[in-house]
UniProtKB/TrEMBL annotation:
Source species: Flavobacterium bernardetii
Keywords noted in UniProt: Pyridoxal phosphate
Matching Pfam families: Ala_racemase_N
Modified residues (N6-(pyridoxal phosphate)lysine): 25
Family indicated by similarity: Belongs to the pyridoxal phosphate-binding protein YggS/PROSC family.
Domain Alanine racemase N-terminal span(s) in chain numbering: 3-217
Parts of the chain that traverse the membrane: none
Gene3D superfamilies: Alanine racemase
Protein purpose: Pyridoxal 5'-phosphate (PLP)-binding protein, which is involved in PLP homeostasis.
Lineage: Bacteria, Pseudomonadati, Bacteroidota, Flavobacteriia, Flavobacteriales
Source taxon at top rank: Bacteria
InterPro entries found in the cross-reference section: Ala_racemase_N (IPR001608), PLP-binding_barrel (IPR029066), PyrdxlP_homeostasis (IPR011078)
NCBIfam families registered for this protein in UniProt: YggS family pyridoxal phosphate-dependent enzyme (TIGR00044)
Name of the featured protein: Pyridoxal phosphate homeostasis protein
Amino acid sequence: MSIAKNLTEIKSQLPAHVTLVAVSKTKPVSDLMEAYNAGQRIFGENKIQEMTEKWEQMPKDIEWHMIGHVQTNKVKFMAEYVSLVHGVDSFKLLEEINKQAKKHNRIIDCLLQIHIAEEETKFGLNEEELNEILKQVQNDNSKLENIRIIGLMGMATFTENTAQIEKEFKHLKAIFDKLQTSNSQLQTLSMGMSGDYQLAISCGSTMVRIGSSIFGNRNYQ
Ligand SMILES: *Cc1c(COP(=O)(O)O)cnc(C)c1O
């Protein structure tokens, strides 16, 4: 199957309110251009350096999403162009994104990453930490005018157990719904990857991050 065919196939399954992020990490620019020529304009990467190299080489009407864990000292390399940072998990990181966005006179959208998986290794906040960060943002005197928190992101456990994954997605959706009642800026719920996006959509996802089902399996070397 070609990248263009994969994209068409996946897009035909997505409801109109669900945004597709094509996760192109490890893939060459030629593969991304194939997706671009098939109409895809939103790409997700998990390493800032790799994303920046691709941004430099590719057309400028692309929205770049950082979906990986972000180190504070690397924010400056993507502040000029990044559209959405999915994996924000500290107030300190928000402050740094704000500071770097300001230098470029931009507003950068952010999602707060919630830990929903059983694995210890996955990054993210629990509900208490999430509320703490939102409170800090609200009380901050500098007002963080160059960032906008537009929603939440989460990754389910890597397992064949669908019931487990569903439970985790529903947990994230419940946190999202609770927050939405008091904060109308929150509209984006980023959950679902190649293996579980249909389930994620049925649980309320509004943004899916799909890599291998579009570009084929990744070859890490
Ligand atoms: C790699 C990655 C994806 C895409 O994974 P696939 O299973 O290839 O669709 C989605 N989200 C994050 C955070 C990732 O790192």
